[in-house]
Amino acid sequence: MDVNRILLDILIVLLAAKAAAELADRIRLPAVVGEIVAGIIIGPSVLGWVHSSEALQTLAQLGVILLLLEVGLEMDLAELGSVGRAAILVAVTGVAVPMLTGVGAGIALGMSGKEALFVGAALTATSVGITARVFGDLRALASVEARTVLGAAVADDILGLVILTVVTRIVTQGSVSIFGVAWVVIVAVGFVVLATLIGVRVVPQMFAMVRRYSRSPGTLVVIALAFTLAVSELAHAAQLAPIVGAFVAGIALARSSAAGRVRSELAPIAHLLVPVFFLQIGIEADVTQFARPAVVGTAAVLLVVAVLGKLASIVGLIGSPGDRLLVGIGMIPRGEVGLIFATIGLNQHVFGQNVYAALLLVVLVTTVATPPALRWRLLALRAKRTGATGATSTAGAALVRVGRSGLVELHAEPVPSDALVVALRAALLCSEHPASPALSDWLDNFPAGTRKWDEPSRAEFFKLLRDGSPRSWRLLIGTGILQRSLPELDDALAGQRADAFELDPLSSLQFPRLVAVHELSVDGPVAWRSVLLTALVLDACGDSSPDSVSVGRQTVQRLGLGNAVEQRVVGLVSDAELLLAAARRWDALTEDAVQQIAVHLETEEQARALYLLSRAAPDPMSAEDRERLHTLYELISAALAHPDVVGPDASNEIERRRAKARSLVMRESVRARIATAPRMLVLSQGPEDLARQASLCEPPPVGDELKAAVQGKPDYIQIEIVARDRVGLLAYTTAVFVDLDCSITEASLATWGDGVALATYRAHAGRIPDERVLEHDLSAAVLLPLTSAPAPHLTLVFDDTGSPWHTRCIATGPDQLGSLHALAVAFSAVRVNVHAARVTTDGTDATDHFDLTDHRGAKLDDRTKRRIVEAVANGAQGSKRRFGFTSSARRG
Predict the structure, then answer these.
(1) Order of strands across the sheet with 845-854?
(2) Kind and range of the H or E element at 467?
(3) Between 184 and 777, where is the model more confident?
(4) Are the CB atoms for 881 and 854 separated by under 8 Å?
(5) Structural contact between residues 311 and 333, judged by C-beta atoms closer than 8 angstroms
(6) Is 409 helix (H, G, I), strand (E, B) or coil?
């Protein structure tokens, strides 16, 4: 085995597949046609770059298994019961007539019995994905004809697989006896029925358990693929085609709550392997056969049989609504299903290259010719129906309701001005009930032109947002109503639509965030209109889409909701990932980080809305993420309750002070330091003080380096110390201040994001300390053990309600030198962080206020509070880890 040759073949096949699909899409051809042609071009028939090999055949088989798995995942067994007698009769007739006429044509052309039988079986297939894509492009998926074709496809696929199994067994065993045929039918039908019944009961519980207990992100999709291969192997053991097992596995998985996730996670694998199957068909095709008159003649006869056989399926529509010719055309394309039949026949050596080439031509012609024919008939019918309709009622939304039959019915033709209201109410009701043929016909012929929004239509729209389901939105998209009323939103949703080989191109449309928002609640008023509309926009565009803001803005403008709602929705869309991303940062819960987000969000209502949307994010969230997100939201809400710090006036004042301070300095590094200064520092300092403090921080201290600045004021001295952010700073500095006979009256700390800490003290002293001596004493104090004498004269009271971040500690007692040091050492001994300190005195008594957190950054528990009281009363020795005065950046 030449591994390098295999890898090169795979490289060429994958690139050719993608190039062919892109080109086919641009010239409005089904991708399957482009992929087959690409296989012919790179294969032996033309360029000879790639030859059929065991490796490619294996990948192709995996691709076809994934293809049938996806078809099964799209299969809703309940749909077979809801489409009614017409769809089932269409399917049965559309299988029986081509089968019989195909066998007869094969025998008339001189084929053997086995060849004719397999050719007839190949002609029974219907590729409804191609038809569904045309209906979807023309916004007609809700029409009676489209629903009939889609419903018939459900039965058609099941019948086709049974026929494939029966025919394969007959031609491989060489038996055509009645008993043999009956036994093969019993085995095939028995396997499909039994495996399906067991699967739909066992698989949902099994995968619910896997989803609940798995931790690795790839576990679910790996087990789903392994399950598919296992059922395929069971089918092979029962002497059935492996694709039958893949189809059954898909039906079983479709009933699981994990179906959507399995479908989305398998999609990238399918995009790689399914095209390999179609290219392999082209690679194995001998194009020289196409030029042989015998092949062309055989193909012409089989093409007539294929077309007329499917048109005969309209017999099943007798007594049912819908255009018969449109349904018949919709059943014609063979597409990938016919190719599977033909390929199996070739691989089983039932027929040779000449018959295979003829079948390939039939598949290509029916696949390419059907879309324009379908488009022509559909547009002609639409023009005819539009000219014949006439409005009769102005009753608005009351015109549509659930009738006694359980169908959503339209009781009169609404006037054009009421059409949007009626359509929105119908979409809401159709989330739980099927539409009647009359309603489907009216929706399919919805009045032309852009729909204008008024208050009744807006009210119905938000009812739909609140109570609708993905099925409601698929109806609006499939009928083109969303395109005519909210075109930007509809265009965004176009990117989610399924590939052409799936039964329903809109089946992949999911609205996970919109659905999740309905299940959430939060204390306080919520702007639900903005929240729901934002969730819809995010589901349509994706959180990271650069177009989401534009789509959100234009959608609000079309709805006519006003500037306030527009700004709110645009802000929520822009910030969709903000809270969760911020909560995952190590410094997420720090005061400055929280205040920055609070200033950005501006109002508690906006923060509440963004929190709900963050919780409804479709990506899995760990328990830790949820807890941190909730904590961050609570801190933001608490911060927004203090407009003096985070309100617009405070923000304007902060920017004014920063601008003034920057104008007082020349060095760019100092200006940058001012621009990033913590908000509380800016609010507590004048521009001159801020400029001086930023200058002291530049250049930043290195290692254990400390800088000190001392200023004499009329009533006090101000001492500023700059150091790398460290714990225990308050305890060590108070020890030095005691030796210098300085009485601290106020202390605060600010820390920049780069770890530079600025400690500011106000003190009373007999003399102004020398800055160099102070720096020396502080550097020496850090090397000494921390101790304090007992201070039983101090009384401590703790308050957890005064700050969203800190426990407030209030210490009162006689004004004695060393009291602040005793408190600082006690905090250090108990491993408590001090974020700010303020001392007030009347000359006799003193009151000290501290903002505290524990070593994890949380408020203090009762045990920690008791230990602090004991350490103050009995004296303490500071922690060797030097916990004491730290910046809030250490929290989180």
Answers:
(1) 706-712, 717-724, 756-764, 743-751, 832-841, 845-854, 807-814, 795-799
(2) helix 455-467
(3) 777
(4) no
(5) no
(6) strand
